[in-house]
Amino acid sequence: MSSIFVFDAYGTLFDVHAAIARFRDEAGPDADRLSEIWRLKQLEYSWTLTLAGHYVDFWTLTERALDYSLARLPGVPKALKAKLLDAYFKLDAFPDARAVLKALKAKGHKTGILSNGSPKMLNG
User: Fold this and answer.
1) For 2-15, what is the mean pLDDT?
2) Does residue 8 carry a catalytic annotation?
């Protein structure tokens, strides 16, 4: 009997810190801090707006969170914004995620994604 396995996209299948990792040298010594603040703000905005009953597309929240993060870290070039947002559309999957999905499919199971990411992000 086959089962259906549903996974969260961001942070479970896709490494949300991969965008910063690709541009670590350009971001400079604050690269890790930028990635940390960006992710925390992204989630904070999502949770706060959801609790308030206001929907804002997750891509918009992702961009706003990056704007906030860049404003907090003046040593990071603002010109990186476009590159980082583009990289977020092409996040790396965690190495074990790919293996798990392949193994589940090989056993006849179905897989799916449950995410607050917008269709534009997930299809990117």
Assistant:
1) 92
2) yes
